[in-house]
## 1
Amino acid sequence: MTVIIGERFELNTEPEYILGSGGMGTVYLGVDTQTGQQVAIKQLLGSVVRDRPETLERFAREAEALRLLNHPNIVKVLATINNDPDHYIVMEYVPGGNLRDYLDEHGALPLRRTLEIALDVADALTRAHRLRITHRDLKPANILLAQDGTPRLTDFGVAHLADKPDVTRTGAVVGTVNYLSPEALNGLPFDTRTDVWAFGVMMYEMLVGQRPFEGDNVTARVTAILTHPVPDLTKLRHDVPPNVFGLIRQMLEKDPDRRINSVRRVGAEVENMLRNLDSATEVMEPPVLANPGQPAKPDSRFNTPTNMNIPAFALEPENAVGNVQNQSATRNITLDDISSTSNTDNERITAPQTSQEIVTTPQRRVPVWAWAVMAVLAMAVVGLGLVASGVLTPAETVEVDAAVLPAPSGDTLRVLIADIQPLSGASERDITRMIMNDLEQRYEIGNTHTKLDIVRYPESITSQDDAVTIANREKAAVVVWGTYDNNRVQLDVQAGSVALFPTIHFPRGIIDRIANVRLELQDPQTESIAPYVAGVVGILHSADGNLAEWARMIAIIPTDVTSPTVVRSSAANTHCYFQQYLASPDTATSCIDSAISAEPGNAILYWLRAMARNRDYLIEFVDERMLPAQLNTLRDAAAQDFETAKRLGPDNWVMPLFSHLDGSTVGNRKSNLVIVNDVNEIETAVSLRSDDWTPLYIRAELAYKQGDIDLAREYIDRALESEPDVTLPYTSALLLALRQGDLAAVHDYIETIVMDFPDYTVSARMFDVLIGVTIPESLIPGIFSNLVIGQYSAASNIAQAFNQGNSSPGLFGGDETLILLTGISQCGQGNYEQANLAFTNVINFDRTFAFARLMRASAAREVGDRSRFDSDLESLRNSSQADILAPYIDAVNTGELTCANVFDLNVLGRYHPDEVVPDA
């Protein structure tokens, strides 16, 4: 039987069109009637939804994940269609079968082919993990192969989206048993490292033709995963170099804390291996022991920040198998829903487990320091031999002041962790690794928007002067170094190279006195230096004049940490300010008061106090907890601090120019608007920091408040040229484009926000740092994200929660747009009368808002209000935006474009100028 779904896609359900089937439904080969291209149509049967309602959420989750993941090595989703009782995802058709079938037919793959597939899969997973999506079911059956052999990652049905609740039951294990990580089998918390494990299993299988952990039944295979060491594949395939096996073994560490912590690093290693294969021979040298991992080449697809913290892989003695005992929490595993005989990779576990307890610990490893000692001794022997033989004379054995590490890439800032040295009599512990683990988890794995690159420096540092010298050489913004004994760890966290901040014009001593801090830790596994690292970077950004990055550093400071003790540091009060800024502005102000008392001539300290006072003022203004006289006193104190900072600081320091944020009222609602008394000051900031989007953004806001939307859009467009990595400027650009009726630009901005910034909470926290109260611009990305995927109720809930609170209008008319989006979400739920009321409220507020009138016309069409429909369309055809809105007016007139589907990117994209195909 052949049917047309979604008014576009031809679906034939005859058996010869079936591409695959499973418990949730069937995948058919279909045709896009508009393009003639073949497509894959995944059908979720209504009977499945009826019997297992949670499958519908999984189906929607897969569609959402694929929509977010726009990547050449990930299957593209073309449309989602709901024809009750059946549901469909339409995807690109990949005609080459899947990797499972290919392996079954051909067996083990050549080394180069394995690495090529692994490189593309790593690239795809890097994209997914950057968007905080964990696949959770990585296996050969979910790797499709194009006709040219290029892999495509698919099947995100059980993926974990970080900002979405899980659809699995509590205690459930999700995935396919042969590729599940030990922590997943044990029901422990997981993260993207569970994908790294499955990736390692798959790489091993491609090279050997079988998985590393086998058994006659599921129980045996689970036991093998949890207890058996990784078989040495170099004994099974002699053409596989040791470093390839070393990489796979690191990916298959049973303890996730010892496993490679980033698939991006896996990709960088694989890419380097392929580069080595392209050399004169295909023999790859084994890795240098204790080498902190080869970074990606400058032209690498993985040249985003790479952790240089531990060896990407390390050789171990063959007998270092380790004793398999458990030192962590365990869970019971049941195998009642799993076939005990099947040995395929299709044994996906989706139910709680209840059988024998199986426990694990990581394998023992030779400590990194032991390899380092051996390497140093070997080098010393060789060096002595060369000198003794006359090849080198002692005078020629001079030190070369060259960088030990490759230069950092992108706009990230390097945090250098030197080897923490044991004092006399101290037991050997890898304190450096403990510090690295904590910082990586907080600033790279758990939060991908910090712009901090945590890197291990393979030598010790013994003084602040040495730290500065090394920071300048290695291009590090922060340096951490120190010592330990059996009772404590003492660390210095200090500012690194100020040369990385080209607009710092303060003497270095002023920065060092308020940034550098000495800390004492009793337990480095539970205490964290992360807040102090962010504080040092925040001070550097303060001196540099980068308001947005200063706000970012405060926004990322973790609050769930046990802080170490500060030892004799003049910077203690400054760090107290940074750590208390969000939770308690009063405490932050008291801390900075103490800092100013100790150093009354430091301009940076006055600016920091001005920001805390100004934020406190805005909060009190909105909450109405202070008398007007008290509010005025607080505002005047902030203004005086801004002026003092301006007087004491360098002439070309822009931070005091971002001043005079004030409170005002609009109607019966409160507003915290950026009001600068002298526009010329912001123009000066723009000229001084033309590379920074922040002053351009504030200048655009001023133009908008003056009623010049076109000038505001011009400044916003200039701000976007620097490619900001937060949602705020894109959101404001979107709001201005809506005002101008530029829906093609709206489409592009929505796509950027949803695709590139799925975690919009970072921008919201940065707003909190700057002004302390919620404004619409901080919520709109979340609303758009829900509207794009059809989650109208969720979008409506966000908007209503804001409107019910004592919050403020936005900087670019965000309040009107919030009401507009509320109306669109009501359309999506079929509540057209409520939608009409929302659109009317927007029009009454601003009668020139043509897009709101277009949406009201659509709502009127749905309820049969022909008079309102005709009147609004006629008004639009006579408006100043008639030309730019013409295709959308026609589409609303025919009903093709509605107030419910207007933010469906597939629908909106039909009218995008780039999508228009000229007549032949």
Note: The chain has five domains: 2-92, 99-349, 369-398, 413-569, 679-915.
## 2
Amino acid sequence: MAGLEGIAGLSLACNVMQLISFGHEAISMCRRIHESGSPEPGLSEHAESLKAVCDGLEKSLGKRPTPVATTAPTSAATRAPTMEKRLLELAAKCVKNARDLQEEMKFLSPSQPGKLGALVAAPKILWRKRRLERLKGNLDDAQRLMDTSVLERLFARAEALYQANNKGFTDLSKELQRFITDHAASNSILRTVVETHAKEIQDHVTMASSKTQNEIKSHVSLKLSSHEISIMNHVSSSAQDVQDTFSQRMTSREDSKAKELAFQQLLKSLKYPGMNERRNQISPTHPKTFRWIFSNTFQFNDWDSGSDGESEWLAEDDSSTHSDEPAEVDSTIIWSEDSVESSGSFRSSKPSLESTKPQPWDSFVDWLKDDPRKIYWISGKPGSGKSTLMKYIETNDSNIKSREPAIRILSHYLWRPGTFMQQSIKGLLCSLLHQVLSEDERTSMEVLKRQPYILRKDADTDWTARELEITLLYVLRNSAYLHLVLLDGLDEVADTPDEGVCRLLSLINDLVMSNRVKVCVSSRPEPALKRVLEKHPMLKMQDLNNRDIHLLTRERIEAMQFDANNYTTNHLSNLICEKAEGVFIWVILVLNSLKRGLDNYDDMDTLYSRVESLPKDLTKLYKEMWSRMKEDSDLYRRKTVLLFYMAIEYKTHSESALIWHGNANLLGLAISTDDEMLESFMASHGWELPDAELLWQKWHRLGRRLPAMCAGLLDITKPEEAFTSPNCNENKFKPWGKTGIGFTHRTAVDFICASEEGIDIRLSEAASSFFSKSVP
């Protein structure tokens, strides 16, 4: 019993498991039906697709024509109708099974959607599950049989095609073998023909090649010979061309070098010692002086007309004249752009501007621009600043050149106290010719070509005055430029039979004969000059430089730092300007005298008395200044006279080209003014020189004492070259290199050398015995 109970329990458990499995399967089926609406979602579509394929197969096989029997039928061909028939049967069976499966699926599908339809259809599906699986199996079996039949039919078709192709290949091989046999038979004949023709061709080619080779060699040899000759000719020609070109370049370079050397030699032959010395000695002007020379619309007011006692040059349309910078010059003060004729000469036209008040001088501007007269005269008393004005015009040439670049300015400063060349017409011609040629090398070459003998000239002594004049006139008349010639100091020309004022005026007339030259001259109003020059446009320095003198005086007095109020110093300045009467050198001498008085601690009353007592005449002024030295000892005055004689001696030796240099000048000045050194030097007959350091100390002290010793008649000159000595410090001697002494002005030379008072001064002193032979 116990065993049966166990079996019953196991059976019960199995039933429970089967029930659970069935329930699980039912639930899964319900879920599948609920989700897809069909118990087998893909089965219906599979059956439908298979049915459509079978229907198409039936139609395809039903439309095929009955195959025609061949003359040699094969087994494959015999089986073809049987296979097609069987394939049709399988397709019909497959269609039937698919239709049955579709009907079963339609029966099992829920009649209504949703969960209720799924619950109703699930038991039905589970109940007819075996039938559904059987129908599905039948459909699968029919499909596999149909697939196998299709493959069998395809194999049969392929075998039939293979057999047909094999038979065609067999027939083709026989024809090909026959062709190959025939070709082999004819190949022997063809080989024989080819070999025969090859031999003939080889022989022909060999013969033709040999012939061609010979012809090519002959042609190439001929061409090579021809080209070799051509190349040799070309190389020879090219080498000759290169050689000719090189020779031409070397010749051109040598010609250029020769021309440059000739040009430099020409300039060197025209340059003489001290040619620019006088120009360089003229001190620069005060920044505000001489502006009036380049103006033609200015009014002049007397010094006493202003409320502050000052006089000014007032411009109607420009108030910048009183600034510290140089005044800008209006474009009307120079040659206008159309003021030069087609020939390049100066021409006349009416002035474009008129002064608001009659000017006390002929306008320098209008003369430059419009006046047909070719000479302008700057007249003035001795020491009135004529040379300074001429240098101002020369150094401010930009006012003229800015509108007419073709203008060139030439200048020369005659100097009676200088060497013969510095005061002679020959020196003037050398200077002008040197200036014009140094700026125009082309014209210089034309001169050398026209006058080749000039190449033999090495110095100014190789020229004659006539040769210089002819050359200068030729250059000025044929130059591409206009020229303004500035000649200063006509009254200082050398007074010799071949020189003199008349000869100089004749030269000036020759210069202005050309329409391309104008000449501005300056001189004292000496009768011989006044008679000829006063008919030309002119100005008088003493009438125009009052303002310039006032500026200089005020500046110098302010620099002296007087212990007085502005009114007193202004009154003293006005007093000096009033007594100067336009003479600059008089003002300079008076200011120097005031400086010496101030150094001697003179009070203001004494300084006033000193100015009021000084004569207006320069000769009397020099005499008055010398007489003030009577208070000094005879030894002090004797040394001063020695310096006068040395200055005269220096001038005399310079004219003889025996120019003193460096330490010779220094030795002479230092030794001559020291009795002890002079006695030692003379005792040794000039072989024993003083110590260099002691010499420098003596000279330095002399330089500081000179203004007081010579009453303002002598001054120190300092050229650029430095004095050097191996025995002392070069830097200490450098400021005194080639230092000498000279007269402060030509009026000082005239006073010492020509006036009765000056001759008395020299002859009255015991020191004159040393230099009496040098007195001119």
Note: The domain at 277-544 is CATH 3.40.50.300 (Rossmann fold).
## 3
Amino acid sequence: VDVQGLGYNRNVAWDTIFPEALPHVTSLGFYGTEWPYSSSVDHADYLARANRFWVGENGDPSDTSTLDDWKGIAHYVPARSSVNDVPFVTDFNTGQGHLYAVDGEVLHSGDWNQRGLQDVMPTWRWLAESAGTPLVPELDWTDAWVGGSCLRISGDLSPANETNLKLFKADLTLPPQAEIEVAFRRGVAGAESRLEVGLAFDTNPSSFTFVPVGAGASAGWNTATLDLSAYAGQTVSVISLRFTSPVSEPGYEIRVGRLALRDGPAGTPAAASGAHVEAAAQLDATHASARLRWTASPDPVRVYDVYRRNPGGGRSWIGGTCGAALFVPSIARLSNEVATVIEIEAVGRDGGRAAADTTSLYWGPGGDNLWPCPTANGPYCAVTGQPLTLSAQGSFDPDGTIVSWDWTFGDGDTGTGPEPTHAWTTSGTYDVVLTVVDNAGRAESVAAGVTVSDTASDPLPDLAWYPMDEGFGAVAGDSTGQGNDAAISGAAWTAGPDGGALFFDGIDDYAIVPDYPKSSSTLTVSAWVRADSRPQWASIAKNWALSPGAFHLGLYEDDGDLQAFVAQSNETTVGVREGTPLPLGEWQHVALVCDGDLVRLYRNGFEVDRAPYDGTLLTTRAALGIGVKTNGAGTAPNNTLPSFWNGSIDDLRIYGRALCQNEVRALAAWEPVTGAGSLPGDVTRLWLAPAHPNPFTEATRLEYALPTDADVSLTVYDVAGRRVRDLVRRLQPAGRYAVQWDGRSRDGRPLAPGVYFVRIEAAGEREVRKVLRLR
């Protein structure tokens, strides 16, 4: 039915489609149901039109009698339950408003719209039953408990017009510790709420049991928690609010901001982690936009509220989402602050709030220059008297270039450049500080730790090592000599980056180690991997044990991001995750390091995420799955989610110590890019050849040469300056290289035809080439 132009004035053969007192003949679809909004003159008119469209001319779903042809959709379609589980929480938030409140405190003033934050709204609009003139319910956008709106009930209340407002059709069984929290506001301290919560059970849906809410101590918002455990095990069919008074109360008014039905008090969900500013653009001197990302809480989450801390104290709400990323179009710079602290707060399904994870948005001076972002990598390990090369790889300036790198080594010496070399003469722990300066003169510093020992650590793994060079047979041998061989099921031998590897088809291939030595303090898991696709939760290595120290190294859910988690002492998990999908068809070095205080995730020798850790590593017996998540016995794939790897795995190493960054980097030193040969005789600086072919349709070849060993970044940008693909991001020795770009983005999607720019950066130099992708 096309209602785009006429709305409820459209003539429809209702009796033919939905004959009275008979089964429906067919289903019905509507085109243009935004008509109540597009035809309205203001917000009140929109609400009136929408209510008539769906409920009918009387605004009462229990009475749709009218001479008008349009009786409202409620006349033909009976109410269905949308409240089927505990916990059930609604703040009557419509996902839009003129303010945003959290627990009754307004933390944002101004219009906002995020329909993804909308709560489950009342089943009926409105079903107010009274022997007299019922009170008037309505949505109110001038106040809220959480969000931008609440429920407002008003009118002249007396014993003669007690009103039962049916709100939700339900089908849920009350749990043993059932309780319901009500947030309400009368506007007068100590005033009786005159409010009761009504429950109708499935044994007699027309009969209600009412529980009084009581008085409110404050003139502002109050909360009351009502014990419903006496009704545990009964199935609720309807949830209502009753308003009753032994005396007349002209001008009665109450706002209700929350109904939360739970099994006991609200819990505290695990916090989000790894919050960071993925990208930012300073719009002017006092405003910036930012793309934020974080690792989701391992607990079920209702929403993530995002705030900015204010210079004078307190915080302001800047957005919310149900996912693990948010684009904020405008963040205001207050009091000429140097950085704005951003908070990510996970809200559980029962309304409980976690501790906030934080990150910072840095501002440029005068609004025309953003702060440079240094990365000193680390932690490092060194041997007394032996030189160590430090790295500023990953440092960048968001709106310019870094022109200088200055280092202090913690022993009185200093150095310069992106990769200085230094030797410490005395063992101990040192703080190395890197200070970078951008082309506008803005400086920023960061520290990294260096542990200097008199003897070098053993570079070989001590717990388990699978070089996977056998090339035949059904066993991948453990080269530590401890005999913890891996039994292969289906996986095939193939070529690896250096020797052999195992290929897993992503369907049913895997390898299992029944048991292997454990470490109770520190851990490193390292491997070379090549992904051919990104199955959900695909596992590179995972030990299946429900105890602290159990770990997973693989991919995150359906996003395909490199991810790892380690179980803590309190039976929660710490997750670390790279913010982009793992590249397909390329050998990558990955590593998980846990030193007892932090969990770090590395790709190609450089840290991509970290999170604090509180736990003792696994010491009990547990199987190790390679390319799979095993069952509880560690004998076969997990039946529910086996998480098979699709691609190749090589050189899997497990250490009973936390490797330093330079040690991880050494493991990642093998070069996965095509070909390294002699340097062209006339090349004395960084060189990037024109792409060939150019223009291209399927793929183009990019050749480049390095006059010296350097950290190389070869990146593709679109015409808007957005980074769409990292082709190379690692340390390479001097030489000539070639890599192919298939015209796809970081997540594997084919990019639109058009002009793109390929930029190479190494050893302080930069070259750019333009390429044209055709259809």
Note: The chain has six domains: 7-75, 88-263, 273-367, 380-453, 464-667, 674-773.
## 4
Amino acid sequence: MVFLQRLCFQEYCLASPDLLLWAIPLAAALAILLFFDFVHFRTQEEKKAFKRQRRLDKIVFFILRSLVFTIILVALATPYRVRETTTQGNPSLTIVADNSSSMELFEGGIAERLKEQLEPFFPVTLKYIAQGQRSAIGDGILQNIKGDDNVLLVSDGNANEGRDLGDIMLFSSILNTTISTVKMEPLHKDAGIAIEGPTEVIVKSESFYTVKVHNIGELPYSMEVFVDGDLVNLGNDGKFVWRFSEGFHKIHARIKPGSEDYFPQNNEYFMTVKSIPRPAILYVGKPESPLGKALERIYAVTFSENLPPGFDAYHLVVLNNINADSLNPADVDRLSTFVSEKGKGLFVVGGDNSFDKGNYKSSYLESILPVQVGVGQRTNISEVNVIIVIDISDSTGWSLDGAATRLELQKAIALDAMDQINLDNNLGVIAFHTQSVLIAPLNKYTFHDPAQLRTKISSLTPGSGTNIFSGLFRAEQEFRRSRGSKNIILISDGQDTWESGILKKGQELANQGVRIYTVGSAGENTNKALMQKLADMSGGFYYEPQTVNKLKLLFGESPEERCEKETMELFILDDSHWITKGIEDFKAKLTGYNFIVPKASGRKLVATDCDRPMLVAGRYGLGRVITLGTDDGSKWAGQLLGSRNSKVLTKAVNWAIGDFMKDADLDIRVRDTSLGKPTAINIISEEQPQVKGLDFAKVDVGKWSSSFSANETGFFKVLDAYVAVNNDDEYSYVGLNPQLKDLVAISGGRVFDKDDIEGIKNGIISLSRRVKAETKQYRMPLLAIAAIIFLFDILFRKIREHMRL
């Protein structure tokens, strides 16, 4: 049941208005008590005379006692009034100026000029933060805030080290420090290049890479990409596919912009790729299996119809359609040790002789799997609470395709999500920018006016900065008096600078049993990392806009009718997991499946349209286990092995294997770095490595470590490996950080025009006014009134008794 959280009339509120509902049963109980006389009469005439005599007494008693009970209930409901008081304060300003190299793109001397022009109006202090290649902006701000003061940040907002800017902004708001900034337009143009893609791949497998160019000022440029010196034929989207031979390889991208390019330091990008041997897989089952043949094209597969005595040399064991009775306890013990202690992988495939059809229920083998045999029971849909939280920050007003804005897409997603929620569920809607707005309180779906609610959502307009925390906090308040499952559908671009606070609130919600399902709305500009973390930590899923229809599996109608079909469609239910991330255009059907249910340790990644789990991943000790709730493609799931869909199974195998080189006698592991930042070089070897200029220390049996740094960019060879060194991180992010305006909004600051001195002056004076909210409760006065009425009731009855004497 959902109760009111708060009831307000003008500036007076009740914190717990649901307590007023007790007035009805109390009044009814009082009326019933007054109906009885509790006196024995000798005659009916005597009884009638007594009732006539006591009628006025009972009426007055009922009114006064009901009034007393009501006032006490109002007092218990905690009446209060919030009054805001404003103090003028003493206007002053601290200008904090970023002096790092990336600021060279902008006009110089802005901070000095602002200090000179603002000093006639109030005290101004100028402090410089960041220097050269170090942009510890957060640390610099922290050193210059005092509390109850104003700070003007002159910076591009691009920090490459130090404390998180979002955390600093939140801390400043706690200290009542307001941090503002100024708009700056780059005076110079700049173009830079970077590469995105895997740094470790399987030999001869397809590896996908994307070359990205940031261009400030729309500079003309030409671009070249080389792999081991060979020129790559790039597509128009900057993507390319490559098959690497075994060993280390070099990718070199360079851009040749026009003569107006300001920073030549970011015109080249270096990247190394390690191509490793094909992992060894033991495939237990029939060798003519379609799945086995597909795996054989990528991995070194050994087929066996029975589990051999020894299999420690393999990276992964696949059990294809194996009956649990065919594995004795010793076999399962060896599998358990193989996975949990040696950190290897296990892939169990279903079929007509597996899981529910293969005596897995309560078997020893079932104990090491992330699933158990059975049919999951859906939660009572009458106790499902869903709150849709919509981002209406100013960034949602930006165009996606030249016509529609992000907010228009988000409103469409919200309306689509509403259509997929069962009418028996409880529904609420919240919007947020820097603050949250309650669009519809959490209540039974049918209690809402659908047309009115759709109109409210459709009429939402962009607000100021972004504060996802406020939306989650408001949802938490709405859930406080609800029962059953609690679910949040967060629709946002994820562009919020206070990630640590958001994730902390997400963890708090997860601890309360709230699941967060996130929907990204800005395409490539969505902060997917944040949105996925929020979903992962709470047991929810991350969705792209085109996959929101999967919500129907979670909150829609009962799936029993859909399960009766002969052919079922497969859906990627959780596309935030490493296995399913980036899988596009997945579309497969199957005609049969096994009955499995994920355990608490299992994560359901792929399911049928009737919510039957198909692909479930889980960890077991040091290793990983995958279960597939259908067959190997021979009878039921042939489409799953098609070229469009088989990538899911390949990634599942790779995830289960984990570290491909864990058994290597000699291996070199090193990450690419940038100038001024050392990187660790870890080597697996029985003997101490000897490399000129590097000293290796023994960190474990057969494991050695050293630190490498370089004074110039390019590729450097360490034994048989290469390490790439790029230019300073300072040049990776240039131009004005688009999130800066949202950052300052957290502290209550503003974005000023650098040339509007009058506006800055008035703004600082206005921001110097401090508003304090004071809450005054009225419990005691109400209890005093109730006591007076009670005493008056006693006095009235005493007078009436005296008059009857």
Note: Confidence is low (pLDDT under 50) at residues 378-382.
